[in-house]
Amino acid sequence: MDAELQALFNKQLNRELYSAYLYLSMSAYFEHKGLPGFAHWMRVQAREELEHAMWFYNHLVERGGRVRLEPIEAPPAEWESVTQAVRHALEHERSVTKSIHELLDAARRLGDKAAEVFLYKLVEEQVEEEKLFSDLLQKLELAGESPQALLFLDAKLAERKG
Description:
Elements: H1 3-32, H2 36-62, H3 82-110, H4 113-143, H5 147-157
Helix pairs in contact: 1-2, 1-3, 2-5, 3-4
C-alpha cells in the first residue's frame, strides 16, 4: 500500500474513533438531560463508528500496511440544546463524508483499485449516516424543543436496535 494512502487511512481511522468518542459524549449529555432514549441512540451510533474504525484498521492490516494510532481529540461535553447537539452530529457526519471523498480521490490518483473498492462502501455508508441525522434533526426542529415532543422522540429512539 502506498505510504501516502496508508497515512491517509490512518488519519481516517482516527476520525472514525473520534466520531465514536463524540457520540459517547453526546450520549452522556443526553443521559444528564434525562433523555435515556437519545442516549441509547447515540451509544448505538458510537458502536457503529467503532466498527467503521475497525474497517480501516483491518484494511490496513490486510494490505500489509502499518496501523498508527494517534491521540483522539477530546469532544465537546455540552451543547446549547438537544437540537444543537444533533445539528453538530450532522455537521460532523458531513465532514466525515468530505474526508472519505478526499480519500477516494487520493486512491484514484494513486491507482489503488483495492482502496477504491473499499471506500465505495463507505461512500454509501455516509449517505445513510447523513440521512439518519438529517431525519432526526428535522423532527427536532419540528418539535421546537417541546418537552412532550422530546419525551415522545426519546421513547422512539430507545427502540433503536444495534
